[in-house]
Design goal:
Pfam families: cNMP_binding, HTH_Crp_2
GO cellular component, one term: cytosol
Number of domains: 2
CATH architecture of the largest domain: Sandwich
Strand content: 25-35%
Number of helices: 8
Number of strands: 12
Protein name: Crp/Fnr family transcriptional regulator
Distance between the termini: 10 Å
Structural class: alpha+beta
Helix content: 40-55%
Shape: globular
CATH superfamily of the largest domain: Jelly Rolls
GO molecular function, one term: DNA binding
Order of helices and strands: HEEEEEEHEEHHHEEHHEEH
InterPro entries: cNMP-bd_dom, cNMP-bd_dom_sf, Env_Response_Regulators, HTH_CRP, RmlC-like_jellyroll, WH-like_DNA-bd_sf, WH_DNA-bd_sf
């Protein structure tokens, strides 16, 4: 499954996407945040939960050597910060906006109050934690056992599922991500990612238009992602 789970729509049996949006619209504070703003950093109290209404957010860690390890790439409709808030932990990761974003910010106190009063919200949060655990296990399996090309292919498929739009050449991934960011996400080097892109392009599987990737052969990428 590779890096699946880093990017994706959030769907649950207890809450559908519209209900999640309405929940945060009713109980959270709406704020506009400029590109490049750090939402939280390691060591700070995790006392807020976020719903991304518009824009992009990157969640990552930095190693002692200064290397960036991307944990999540989030787009509209994603919720984040609930695991840390509910567990009472301080933040261990860094969250930064990749573009100007609109975010609903809910305090931990409000979230816990709504959980106590509405079992449906508690069920939704439990589903989220279960899914995140499964996604983490799948991610670790992919990082440990899949080839570099397979990991790059899977990330492109994940981006396509989230940001893909119809294009005369195939599926345009309407999300700007650099080769360095891809490498930081799948634990490989920028050069390895660039080489994989070159191979995919030469094989006619992808193309690049205005710094964005077009998937021309989805089935072939899916086959590579399984290797």
């Amino acid at each position: 499954m590779g890096v699946s789970g880093l990017i994706g729509r959030e769907t649950y049996q207890s809450f559908n996407a519209i209900e999640v949006t309405h929940f945060f619209m009713e109980w959270a504070k709406l704020t506009t945040i400029p590109r490049g703003t750090v939402l939280f950093s390691p060591g700070e109290p995790a006392d807020q939960v976020y719903y991304l209404s518009h824009g992009e957010v990157k969640i990552y860690r930095s190693t002692n050597e200064g290397k960036e390890i991307i944990l999540e790439l989030l787009g509209p409709g994603n919720v984040f910060g609930d695991t840390e808030a509910l567990s009472g932990m301080d933040w261990k990761n860094i969250a930064v906006t990749k573009q100007d974003s609109i975010v609903h910010v809910m305090s931990k106190k409000v979230l816990l109050d709504r959980v106590a009063k509405d079992p449906k919200i508690a069920q939704w949060l439990l589903e989220r934690q279960s899914k995140k655990q499964m996604q983490t296990e799948n991610l670790m399996e992919g990082l440990l056992f899949k080839s570099a090309n397979a990991k790059v292919a899977q990330l492109l498929l994940d981006l396509s599922a989230k940001y893909g739009v119809a294009d005369p050449e195939g599926t345009l991934i309407d999300y700007l991500i650099t080769h360095q960011e891809i490498g930081n996400t799948i634990a490989t080097t920028r050069e390895t990612v660039s080489y994989a892109f070159m191979e995919f392009r030469q094989a006619g599987l992808i193309d690049t238009i205005k710094r964005r990737t077009v998937i021309k052969d989805l089935a072939a990428l899916e086959e590579i992602a399984r290797t």
